[in-house]
Amino acid sequence: MTSEKPEGKKENNNVKCSFCGNDTFCDQCQTDSAKGTNMEHVCYDCYQGMNGVLPDNVKDKTHVCIPPEKIAESFQQFINDVTARAFMELWNAEKKKLKEMSRQDLAQTSFFEGARFMFDFMQRMSKQEEHRHEEGHEHKHEEHKHE
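Above: the chain's sequence. Below: its structure in token form.
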């Protein structure tokens, strides 16, 4: 009997968190193990404990290891926060005008504002990604930019 793993089955934990030492999964290192050789890793629990802010001395060389099941949850929270902030900015700037609109005009304006906001957001994210690739930084980080 051999102890080989079935082909195609991925290891659940492939790295150790540089902060707590617990085993964690890094999708980027699973995909390309050469990328992870010079990188630190922080598990999701440690990252949450840091309030999503990595220490300056390690942020440029650290992968944040987010479990796949937490990605959708984090994205939903991000969308909720951004939407609430965008609405408050629009409401504060256009309150009087919005109150004077018909319900149909208000619904249409809201829909188009949301679509415009998301289009602008996607363009900004695309430009940031292009900028990172131009600088030669192909790995992704959470919550910070390369300087």
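The mean pLDDT is 79.
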